[in-house]
Design brief:
heterodimer; A: 219 residues; alpha/beta; Beta Polymerase, domain 2; 15% helix; globular; B: 184 residues; Rossmann fold; four-stranded parallel beta sheet; 7 strands; binds iron/sulfur cluster
């Protein structure tokens, strides 16, 4: 290679064992917690991934709610930091996963849990009964990915208008949206303003603000 | 009677436009990051009070200049349009920043690609975000537009564009007749 083509670039750090990894922190090493979960629910933990001293625990969806209850009531993880969904379209099966970040404030431990969700049956138990903080995050997750949280007190869309029928963060949703699915106000002052984005909050049903093609439209 | 005393004559349009243009009350429609620059525009350093627009009106009924600062989502568009409709005529609108003007870098499903898709815009400001000077410049453009408006005179269409001084059409009426002032 000629010298003129010899680029200088920042080398990528090689993976190092955890003891030498400067990013590894004691707070994210939760080996005892994983052991405790495995003892109580032998089938629950499907996989544990370790990177830079951080444990990511994959939990089976069926026992997930029981595990969360145990985490909160027995293992001291009383604080839900974050919850969101991921679409692993064609990369991994099952297609969706939802991650939960918990903190045990007393022991200073952080725990990341992931739950895989099937595409055909995208349902998870809601943990709003345990952690109030999950409320809006679950609504966001439902809005963006269409994962339904069973037992959620008010599973409405978080960001998109209530009569919107798609889930925009699914990978098959076009980046520029679907024409006509999100109506704009009329261009002329005479046009009628109809859309009420919070109809369901006022216990009405949201009116469709756009025209759908007729069911057996041949054209 | 000497010429130092006498009457100042002008046209109703000129007085109305003069008053309007120097007391434009903005309705701050701050939607995103651009709103921070809009605050600087209203703050003491850039001091838009020099142009008579320091009184931000958070009620649309008292405002006559809407500054849409930031990207506008489809859901918000309906709220903005409602606020705009509640503002009393005459009213003007500034689309501040790349996002309000054209959608900017948010080329995606949720953001309206320019607020002129659903409401009229008088002045667009480029930039991401525009500096407060640019907002002041846009305000001055609106002022110039206001000064050239006809609200009383019947023959709208006629007349060349006039400068601020010219449009005042000031004259001094004395016993000797009327002299125009202001370098016209
Ligand atoms: S133009 Fe830039 S600064 Fe203004 S709202 Fe858009 S992204 Fe933010």
């Amino acid at each position: 290679m000629p010298d003129s083509l010899n680029f200088h670039f920042t080398p990528v750090d090689k993976a190092r064992p955890d003891e030498q990894n400067a990013h590894a922190k004691a707070s994210t090493d939760v080996t005892d917690v994983i052991k405790a979960i495995q003892e109580r629910f032998p089938e629950a933990v499907t996989e544990v991934v370790v990177y830079a001293g951080e444990h990511t625990v994959f939990i089976a969806g069926e026992v997930f709610l029981n595990v969360c209850t145990a985490l909160k009531e027995e293992l001291g993880f009383t604080y839900l930091v974050d919850l969101a969904g991921v679409d692993r379209f064609q990369e991994d099966a099952p297609r969706y996963e939802v991650y939960y970040c918990f903190v045990n404030l007393q022991a200073g431990k952080r725990l990341r849990i992931k739950v895989r969700v099937e595409e055909d049956d995208a349902v998870l138990p809601s943990i709003t009964g345990l952690f109030k903080a999950a409320d809006w995050n679950e609504r966001e997750c439902f809005d963006m990915l269409g994962i339904r949280f069973e037992g959620h007190p008010d599973l409405r869309r978080m960001f998109m208008p209530e009569d919107f029928t798609y889930h925009p963060q699914r990978k098959e949703f076009p980046l520029l949206g679907i024409p006509g699915s999100l109506p704009l106000p009329p261009r002329t002052p005479e046009g009628e303003l109809t859309m009420d984005p919070f109809a369901a909050a006022r216990s009405g049903s949201p009116a469709k603000s756009y025209q759908e093609p007729a069911e057996n439209d041949e054209n | 009677m000497d010429s130092a005393t006498g009457y100042l004559t002008t046209t109703v349009d000129a007085v109305v436009n003069w008053a309007r243009s120097n007391s434009l009350m903005p309705m701050p429609m701050g939607l995103a990051c651009c709103a921070i620059e809009m605050m600087a525009f209203g703050g003491p350093k850039y001091d838009v009070g020099r142009f008579g627009s320091e009184a931000m009106r958070f009620s649309p009924r008292q405002a006559d200049l809407m500054i849409v600062a930031g990207w506008c989502s489809y859901k918000m568009a309906h709220a903005i349009r409602r606020v705009w409709d509640q503002m009393a005529d005459p009213k003007w609108c500034i689309a501040m920043g790349a996002c309000a003007s054209s959608g900017g870098m948010h080329r995606c499903y949720g953001v309206v690609q320019g607020i002129d898709n659903f409401m009229p815009v008088d002045v667009y400001i480029p930039g991401c975000p525009p500096r407060p000077e640019a907002v002041i410049h846009a305000l001055m453009d609106v002022q110039e537009k206001v000064r050239n408006e006809y609200s009383v005179a019947k023959d709208y269409a006629s007349g060349p564009k006039k400068s601020a001084v010219e449009s005042m059409n000031l004259g001094i009426l004395t016993s000797d007749g009327r002299t125009t002032v202001g370098g016209v």
